[in-house]
Design a protein that fits this description.
The chain is of the alpha/beta class. The protein is built from 8 helices and 8 strands; from the N terminus they run E-H-E-H-H-H-E-H-E-H-E-E-E-H-E-H. The strands form 2 sheets. Strands 2-3-1-4-8 form a 5-stranded parallel sheet, sandwiched between helices. Strand 5 and strand 6 form a beta hairpin. Helix 1 packs across helix 8 and helix 4 packs parallel to helix 5. Bound molecules: adenosine monophosphate. The site of adenosine monophosphate has 17 residues, from helix 2 and helix 3.
Length: 221
Amino acid sequence: MKNIMFIAPPAAGKGTQAELIVEKYHIPHISTGDILRDISKENSEVGHYVSEVLSNGGLVKDDITDQLIEQRLRKEDCKNGYIIDGFPRNIDQAKIYDRILYKLGYDIGYVFLINIGEKELEKRITGRRICENCKAIYNINSESNSPKVNSTCDLCGGKLYQRKDDNLEAFQNRYQVYLEKIGPIIDHYRKKGVLYEIDGNHSISGVFNQIDNIISGDDKS
Ligand code: AMP
């Protein structure tokens, strides 16, 4: 199985798509956002720093993210493929990632760029709810992806919460940061011939089918 990277604006659905890939292909999902949210709960200098950056929608310093990605990719469960989501967020991180891959003897694999309009993202960001127990993702602004019972996870019964940065103000900042940094990253992967563009303005299964057609088509060949 090739490695998979997602590049997408905030709330484009990369976490949801990653869950579906995990279910089908049983590879680990590495999300820098999830790792950083865990670190932000720590009562330490780094924990307080990360918590502040997360709540205003900026980017955490590269030396922290570079280190945590390398440590995570060195783990045994990444040997047969993994999904990386939320990294790289700028061209320096993309270059560091190339070096980490080289050191570990891994290939980039597929880089999926999910394209989606800003208005749709705003709708998704305000409706996103996450299970605090199993991290399943819902959207109360979408009929097909709302939880069956208000504020409760369909899968495990856990309580659903809203991320601190899932509000319109933090979204605007996160989206501007994304637009500023993403161009050179896209060019970097396009030149390497590993970029696949996905239309994210579809239902969850519609987006998944586009991604899975590419992965499963390659697996068969
Ligand atoms: P996400 O869950 O991917 O939307 O990430 C949530 C937040 O975590 C972002 O808005 C950033 O503050 C931080 N973050 C996640 N990944 C990175 C990264 N690769 N570099 C710097 N900050 C990051």
